[in-house]
Request: fold
Amino acid sequence: MERTWKPTTAGILCIIAGVIQVIGGTVVAALGGFAGGFFGMGWMAAIGGPLIVFGVVAIVGGVYALRRRIWGLALAGSICALMGPWAVLGILAIIFVALGKSEFE
Reply:
């Protein structure tokens, strides 16, 4: 079977989106926790937690896409990469994972 660039590109996009999500989620959680005491914005900390979780899943899915293993996990990582203003990375990752499905073990 010939290896194409599609799963590799999808993996890189997932990892980039996941790292942005983890950093963004950490900042939102920290600022929400800090600002919550002063301005009553403690609900922001609750938004940061899921962003971090989605970011970790996106990173793991990206690694599996790079290794061309477990297509479902690579797809789940691509879907989790959709969360946030960087959703275009997740959309492209979903497309490339779907197009490269035949390359996964």
